Amino acid sequence: MYMFKQQFESYWTQFSSHLEIDHSSELLHLLIHAYSEPQRHYHTVQHIVECLALFHQIKDQLEDPVAVELAIWFHDVIYDPQAMDNEEKSAELMKQQCLQRFENAKIHKIYDWIIATKKHLPATNQDLNYLLDIDLAILGSSQQRFAEYEQQIQQEYAWVEVTQYQFKRTEVLKYFLDMKPLYQTEYFRNLLEDNAKLNLANSLNKFSHI
Predict the structure, then answer these.
(1) Model pTM?
(2) Fewest CB within 10 A of the end CB: N or C in the chain?
(3) Which residues contact 110 (CB under 8 A, 6 or more apart)?
(4) What span, in angstroms and rounded, lies between the C-alpha atoms of 195 and 200?
(5) 101 close to 81: Cβ distance less than 8 angstroms
(6) Which DSSP letter does residue 23 get?
(7) What is the pLDDT of residues 149-163, one digit of tens each?
(8) How far apart are CA 196 and CA 199, in angstroms?
(9) CA pair distance 184, 58, nearest whole angstrom
């Protein structure tokens, strides 16, 4: 995790220095503290670093790359696996921290985008589709990373009774498997769609044999 923290800090330095963000170190401390909380196993600095790595692959295709990147930084800043309003609270914290640093229209747009990561519905705004695809990119990762991801999610829901967890997790995996397409942008469909469907099918198969 130390390696991911270093990358996290490096990405933030690149982002904040380019925009000359006031009190950048205070925001960095807030973000690192949030993404290092003990209840997190997947929604950590690793997830943000993986999202940012993909963002930098496609940022030239975005209309508002600053908004997409800021949404990535804050979209899981509040995370309680037993709560139902993490996205709303994350959006609120982003607004509190960034309203004096960016124009109102951009903040309100990012606010809505963070809440959109709750349901991952196809959007008319292509920048938002890129954001949603980046957030779901883990589903199309390597077999090894996907297995690690599944373990991390299970650790975050260790408080749920095993049979109930398996039932709920099967519902989630099947929801994503049935999405046609899973990824809304051509770039991520070409890059990840086939592998994601394979990962999801294999995981569902394992649950059916438990």
Answers:
(1) 0.96
(2) C
(3) 67, 70, 71, 74, 91, 94, 98
(4) 9
(5) no
(6) T
(7) 999 999 999 999 999
(8) 5
(9) 14
Where among 86, 101, 135 does a domain terminate?
135
Q: What CA–CA distance (Å, rounded) separates 16 from 63?
A: 19
Closest by Cα among 73, 132, 133 to 102: 73
List, for residues 42-60, the tens digit of each pLDDT value: 999 999 999 999 999 999 9
d(Cα 133, Cα 183) in Å, to the nearest integer? Answer: 6
Neighbours of 120 (CB within 10 A): 17
Q: Are 129 and 113 in contact (CB under 8 A)?
A: no
197: domain range? 142-208
Residue type at position 155? Q
What is the CB-side half-sphere exposure of residue 92 using CA atoms within 13 A?
7
Return the H-helix or E-strand segment holding 174: helix 162-178
The tokens 């469907």 sit on which residue? 197
Structure tokens at 97: 């921290």
Same structural domain for residues 176 and 156? yes
Q: Please give the Cα distance from 34 to 176 (Å, whole number).
A: 27
Rounded-to-integer distance, Cα 115 and Cα 42, Å: 19
**Element containing residue 70 per DSSP (H, E):** helix 65-74
